[in-house]
Amino acid sequence: MAPTLEIHVNGRLHRIQADPAKSLLAVLREDLDLTGAKYGCGEGQCGACTVLLDGRAVRSCITPVGSVGARPVLTIEGLANGDALHPLQQAFLDEGAMQCGYCTPGMIMAALDLLQRAPAPAEDEIRRALQGNICRCGTYPRIVRAVLRAAGTATEAGNE
Amino acid sequence: MSEAIDRAARAATDGAARVNGADSVGERGTREGAATHVVAPGVVDTLEPDRHELREAPRYRFALSRRQFLGTVGAGVAVLVVVRDGLPLDEQEPGEAGGHGGFADPISAWLHIGEDGAVTVFTGKVEVGQDIRTSLTQAVAEELDVPPSSITLIMGDTDRVPYDAGTFGSRSTPQMGTQLRRAAAAARATLLRLAAERWAVDDVAQLELAAGRVIHRASGRSAGIGELTGGRKLVETIAADQPLEPATRWTVAGTPLPKVKGPDIVTGRHRYTSDMRLPNMLVGKVLRPPAFGARLASLDTSAAEAIPGVVVVRDGEFVGVAAPDEATANRALAALRAEWETTSSPPSHRDIFEHLRRTASGQANGRGGPSARGDIDAGLAAADERLEASYTAAYIAHVPLEPRAALAQWEGDKLTVWTGTQRPFGVRAELARAFRIPEERVRVLVPDTGSAYGGKHTGEVAVEAARLAKAARRPVRLVWTREEEFTWAYFRPAGVVDIRSGVRRDGALTAWDFHNYNSGSAAIRTPYEVPNVRTVYHPADSPLRQGSYRALAATFNNFARETHMDELAARVGMDPLAFRLKNLRDERLRAVLEAATERFGWSRWHVAPGRGIGLACGVEKGGYVAACAEVAVERSSGQVRVLRIVQAFECGAIVNPDGLRNQVEGALIMGLGGALWEAIEFEDGRILNPRLSQYRVPRFTDVPPIDVVLLDRKDLPSAGAGETPIIAVAPAIGNASFHAAGVRLRSLPLVPYGLWVAENP
């Protein structure tokens, strides 16, 4: 029988039964039905599974759930405040920074990590920070613009 | 104006009908069944001409009857679009001999306006990131004068939408977009007529329809469009010649509309197939052979079956497991003890090009058949400079970020499968065949999908999930791993192109002899004026499974042609732009070439050490593209860095400028990968680099500043735009590299290991 673990996701405490080696991505998707984080490669190469762990972007597909401990996990589902979108979410809409949208949740979470560390990043800084996230539809220039836009908005809004 | 558009549309469809008729001679059964490229001037190229557009025609079509369609909606106005003779749906599916005639229900799309004013549109097209959901919504909103928010599109649900061959070949905008505009225009006319009757207004022209209401200004009366039927269900059937708004008067279409499902995507709420779940669902896994062509010699399933909750299926060569969760399914898969037999030793990526030449079967006949004019030898004899060169392209993978996925459920003998495919009806046919059940007992639904790029035409993952679900007697979801996606899908074909050409000292082409081996015939014909020309596509034996890919062979054919044109320009000492313009009469192609070079500053560029500029242009599927690139070559490593790209694109009247720009940029960026690094490596029937850590796709820092120039031709019908913008970037970069360093790059990818390796392989 798999052991019982406690995990804090999007401000809620969940008790789940899972092998500690199980990936955080699988726990989010299978046990919690939070499917915003996506499987794309399973080797931490594409960034589609990006979530924040204790405020920092991690690849949840290669993060064993047993390593999470009491640290809070934030997924794309926990980003909006009710119906009010986070400035990054709004910026992705405003810039049309998506096509199929499969990479979008991971992009937004990776960008959130960046903006929390560097509230007014330069374009190059954005590109380097998001280098580990793949968009096969090729919307990279729009994503950069969306992050720049959110950085402006986020400052005004006091970053949440 | 609208007459001109109608004429053009009719000419386009006439062309399609003609070629389609020629096709029904029955070339399709042979492997040479590819198409010639038929382009009438100023008219959308109506055919998807390449055999590599992987599509097997469904053997049967049990289309829904009109009653079945209409039974699913309540009172209101319904408009069915009927495709008349000569405008068959098969024009999207040129491979199918016999045509659509004889089938009872040639409805291609329909829409319904409910009593609450809600507009529902039913179409077999699917959304895979090209944002056709948004631009079709826009087209309907424009014709019907209702807000886009009141429109819902039901897409790719085989139980609810009319038959559609699939979403490929850049057909959705010119074809489905036009048909839905017609349906909406007919609905609008019906609504105005109803209002005129109700208010006893003699002249419909006194009525206006705006923002979902019909208004009679003279009397001050108005009514919502849903109220006008008074509880009745009115059904109208329309044909193809409904008048359309000319593009110059578009108000909603032609302006940016944000992505319809954008809010669901940025919040993570949208469920792709791989995110879906059903009660009691199991997770599936399939046992893959260690190499292509390997046969299962023996299988011991006992250890896997001993794991609680696991179902093991062996059915012929198919072996799979289903388990309550992913980890258990993986454990069960690992517990299967299989022995495999491999026999042949197929070619590898090192000797693939020799292999393709060696196995080439003369030349394609029929629709892929050779085209010739004049006399090549005479043309070569008349030339001052003659050039022979060969070009190659590696197999590449689509790498859709969402791998193939399906969720299958049996209810009695009725099968329902959710899956990300570009061909819902094709997948329905595959499922019906696989399980020997009639198509009406199979329902395929396509949730908006995590991209495809021509890579999701087939339904193997749906068949696999359904087989497991049948054995487990529970719903099964199967999501391919990235490695499976890299290995068991299909690839853009590898190919070789040989060109012999002749040119006079003044830059006029005299001979053009072009042979493509294996990669396909899309955009194979030169758009340049040349008196003696021969163009031949030679099918060959591909060791890897190959199929559709964004723009198909147009990318490689254009790469070879535009590189060769650059070589010829250098031979006669002409500027590459002047050389092209001298040999080019096609006004639309000249226009994009001039727009791109003007914005780029082609003639004002100053020589800088280690830097170079290059250009390329091309036409395909009614889209005209030209790209200019500036590169820097690093002396020591030979690395080529793309500094900037300007690309001009024209596809007739623009429907959604922002969506179009997004497609043009996206195609160009995707094209950077195939241009610079992407190549599938394989030997002994195994893919050697089936991971994202081993196969390089474009990332953020690979993307140079990109400037897209869109030419809006409101006087011309809209063509699709998802594909053609990919075909100019590789030759532009290759030509710029030559300009910078004097090394001619004749292979795709251009510089996987740097320029100096390309020079001395």
What would your notes on this structure say?
The complex is a heterodimer of chains A (160) and B (761). Chain A contains five helices and five strands; from the N terminus they run E-E-H-E-E-E-H-H-H-H. Chain A has 160 residues and is of the alpha+beta class. Chain A has two domains: 4-78, Ubiquitin-like (UB roll) (Roll), CATH 3.10.20; 87-156, Orthogonal Bundle (DNA polymerase, domain 1), CATH 1.10.150. In chain A, the strands form two sheets. Chain A has a three-stranded antiparallel beta sheet, covered by helices on one side. Chain A has a two-stranded antiparallel ribbon with strand order 1-2. Residues 154-160 of chain A have low confidence and may be disordered. In chain B, strands 11-12-9-19-16-17-18 form a seven-stranded mixed beta sheet, with helices on both faces. Chain B is 28% helix and 23% strand. The longest helix of chain B has 28 residues, at 172-199. In chain B, helix 3 runs parallel beside helix 4. In chain B, strand 24 (623-633) and strand 25 form a beta hairpin. Chain B contains 18 helices and 29 strands. The interface between A and B is large, with 58 and 57 residues.
